[in-house]
Design goal:
With 70 residues, the protein is an alpha+beta fold. The protein has one domain. It has a 3-stranded antiparallel sheet.
Length: 70
């Protein structure tokens, strides 16, 4: 599993560490489209958990050495 983010940390939009995924506008677009990482919405506040960010990133891992056997 990817360890790109601290597992037990919470991240808020605008956090520089989230720039690894995209800028604040990109994360907003993903939330609107329902395609980004899991998040909590508490009132107007958006919170990403490090564990969810790592799981989302891991699901998008591409291994160029995988022959894609079906």
């Amino acid at each position: 599993m990817a360890k790109l983010f601290e597992h037990d940390r919470n991240y808020l939009p605008g956090d520089p560490d989230l720039d690894l995924l995209g800028d604040r506008d990109k994360l907003t677009q993903w939330r609107h489209k329902g395609v980004g990482p899991a998040y909590y919405k508490l009132g107007r506040k958006i919170i990403y958990r490090g564990a969810d960010l790592n799981a989302w990133a891991d699901a998008r891992r591409v291994d160029p050495n995988d022959d894609g056997a079906l």
